[in-house]
Amino acid sequence: MSDKEKFLQIYNEKIKREGADKLLDFLENKSDFFTAPASTRYHNAYEGGLLRHSLNVYECLCAYLERERVKNTYKLSVSEETAAVTALLHDICKVNFYKVSYRNSKNDQTGQWERVPYYTINDTLPYGHGEKSVYMISGFIKLSREEAMAIRWHMGFSGIEDKNTIGAALEKYPLAFALSVADMEASYFLEGEETAEN
Question: Which of 3, 5, 134, 140 could lock 23 by a disulfide, CB 3.0 to 4.6 Å apart?
């Protein structure tokens, strides 16, 4: 099963709220969600990297939520729909965000200079990161406060905001902390080893 088929299966099985069909239509027909990179150079900086990252975060979040300590000690109970919405869509802010440019690079094997593609940022909606994702999703489907906070603060302490504000958000909204952990696990552990061939 391809990454796109896997995403569509999870999305269609788990996300049932009003407007989900219109959001999916946007992703498929009016955005580059299924082909965009997840970054310009840090993680999954290849065609389809954003899609792969979204699936990785979903898998990491689901695994985190299954921990007995999370369920029993922290009393964090998240519906399958909420897990799908927050994990699959947390980085929707990156659609229509990157563009391909070209530069010259010396081929180590031949010693010749070659024109090679690379990704640059073309932010046509400069509205931040997590807050931009919340804004974009909310144009199609209603988010609960906890879902909105989780998506907004999914960068955790790697974001540029005041650390006290981040800490307060993660403490008050356990799903935000869980999504942040899943995002970091996917970005730094799973995707550090991935290549475009995976």
Answer: 140
CA separation for the pair 125, 103 (Å, rounded): 26
Quote the CA–CA distance of 6 and 4 in Å, as a whole number. 5
What is the distance between the alpha carbons of residues 36 and 121, in angstroms, rounded to a whole number? 11
Instruction: Specify the DSSP element, H or E, that contains 104.
Output: strand 98-106
**How large is the greatest C-alpha to C-alpha distance in the chain, in angstroms?**
60
Please provide the CATH number assigned to the domain covering 3-97+126-190: 1.10.3210
Whole-model pTM? Answer: 0.88
If we measure between CA atoms, which residue out of 42, 75, 84, 71 comes closest to residue 186?
Answer: 42
Q: What is the DSSP string of 122-149?
A: --SS---SHHHHHHHHHTTSPPPHHHHH
Domain locations in the chain as residue ranges: 3-97+126-190
CA dist., res. 182 & res. 110, Å (int): 41
Q: 175 to each of 19, 70, 96, 124, how far by Cα in Å?
A: 23, 10, 27, 29
CA distances from 79 to 15, 98, 152, 178 (A): 10, 32, 19, 13
